[in-house]
Amino acid sequence: MVPKAQPFRIAVVGGGIGGLFATLAIHHHCSAAGVPVRIDVYEQAAQYKEIGAGVGLGVNAARLIHKLGFGDKLNAIAGHRTGVWITFRRFDNSEEVVTIPVNDNQTIRQAPCARSALLDLLKGTVEAREAATLHTKKSCRRVEDLGDAVRIHFEDSTTAEADIVIACDGIHSPIRNQFHVDKPIFSGTIAYRGVIPIPSPSSWPFSSYSVLWLAKHKHFLVFPISGNTELNIVAFVTKSPSETADVKESWTSVCDRKDVEEDYAGFDDVVQKVISLLPEQPSKWKITDREPLDCWQYMGGKVLLLGDAAHAMLPHLGAGAGQAIEDGWVLGRALSEHLSGSGNKHFASLASTAQLYQDVRLPRAQKTQKTSRMAGDTYEMQTEDMLNKTFEECIPIIAERTRERMKFVW
Ligand SMILES: Cc1cc2nc3c(=O)[nH]c(=O)nc-3n(C[C@H](O)[C@H](O)[C@H](O)COP(=O)(O)OP(=O)(O)OC[C@H]3O[C@@H](n4cnc5c(N)ncnc54)[C@H](O)[C@@H]3O)c2cc1C
């Protein structure tokens, strides 16, 4: 009797949006190719859990979720928008600066979700498909090259072995840090975040709940989530270093609602109403990213970076999770080609397969990373050419630069 092939062992470190989507994409592509794989997901937290905030998926990411066969469930947890990505408005009187339309009439459409609902959907799908074994309280410290495998060392002194390790462990990725010495970079901007019940249409003067108010050095963003029952709020302010010394980059860091009121004094009445509905202690974050990194794969392709571990970006295009999802799709496809022995020279070895994953994904992810910085500077009127211009002079420049910016992402 011919011995049954041992499944290829894949360790996914980090069970966030990137890690769970990658798990599903690898399972999908390898099942279709008839390749046996064993996937273990190692999450540091005690539960697979997301913060109480929203995340907007563009049509690029939504399309991949539909390709995996649970797009209907994605649409069910998202809010159905009304043909608008965001309408940009003046801070003082809410007059329109520019409105970015999108086609929301198709099945595959933008999907603004509660992060927790999206993570629950991914986790539930992993479980229903028996795509992986999900571990908790497994905080990876480092990986070790065993030649033909990788050993993962956890904080609790246990270890695990796999044929490849996919580092989906976020912006602070210990695995990335093992190979590359750099640190998250503080953008100078902080964000207040919160979720409130959606205001009634009679108290909302715009045709869309997706609105961004612009002012010098600050902008205030809202968009609907949870089937249009809740409004997600992310309010950005650029501060001096002395004002941000005590702010953390953590979802447990909070402030008094009074701080938000003070920062947005002078904003239009609709914004004041939204602020008044925030919890008494909204969260307050330092917004950080990483410098673009030119190598995403190590140990001959046995260790690969994915999502924020590879390309943490500022949130100003609302594209980071979508880029992580794209990584997972491409990696799943590449691994299935390699493992099924497709004969294509690009997939002949694990090293060449990992290189192909990087070659396909890196330029697009880095463009999104760099464009996210530019978008933030534009909204806050801090690009070099706007620094000495008045608010009134900046407004048409922002409209011009914003009109087409999202097209390459979608
Ligand atoms: C204010 C803000 C708004 C945003 N809005 C959007 C948006 O609208 N649309 C969008 O597409 N993106 C948005 N993003 C970006 C998006 O949140 C990230 O790009 C996305 O979450 C990255 O997913 P990830 O799985 O790579 O990393 P993460 O979401 O950070 O997940 C990493 C996971 O790894 C785990 N982990 C960490 N270290 C270890 C370890 N050592 N061992 C084991 N597990 C570990 C963590 O607990 C976590 O579960 C926003 C970001 C911010 C800050």
Report on the structure:
- Keywords: FAD, Flavoprotein, Monooxygenase, Oxidoreductase.
- InterPro entries: FAD-bd, FAD-dep_Monooxygenase_BioMet, FAD/NAD-bd_sf.
- One of its GO terms (molecular function) is monooxygenase activity.
- With 410 residues, the protein is of the alpha/beta class.
- It folds into two domains: 8-80 and 110-183 and 290-375, FAD/NAD(P)-binding domain (3-Layer(bba) Sandwich); 186-289 and 383-408, D-Amino Acid Oxidase, Chain A, domain 2.
- The protein contains twelve helices and 18 strands.
- It has helices at residues 17-32, 59-67, 71-77, 115-128, 174-179, 241-244, 257-263, 269-276, 308-311, 320-339, 350-379, 391-402; strands at 8-13, 37-42, 54-57, 84-90, 96-101, 111-114, 133-135, 140-145, 150-154, 159-162, 164-167, 185-197, 211-215, 218-225, 230-238, 283-289, 297-298, 303-305.
- Strands 5-4-13-14-15-12-16 form a seven-stranded mixed beta sheet, with helices on one face. Strands 7-2-1-11-18-17 form a six-stranded mixed beta sheet.
- Strand 8 and strand 9 form a beta hairpin.
- Helix 2 (59-67) packs parallel to helix 10.
- The radius of gyration is 22 Å and the shape is globular.
- The mean pLDDT is 94.
- Bound molecules: flavin-adenine dinucleotide (FAD).
- Residues 13-19, 42-45, 55-57, 138-140, 168-170, 174, 191, 234, 307-308, 315, 318-322, 324 line the site of flavin-adenine dinucleotide.
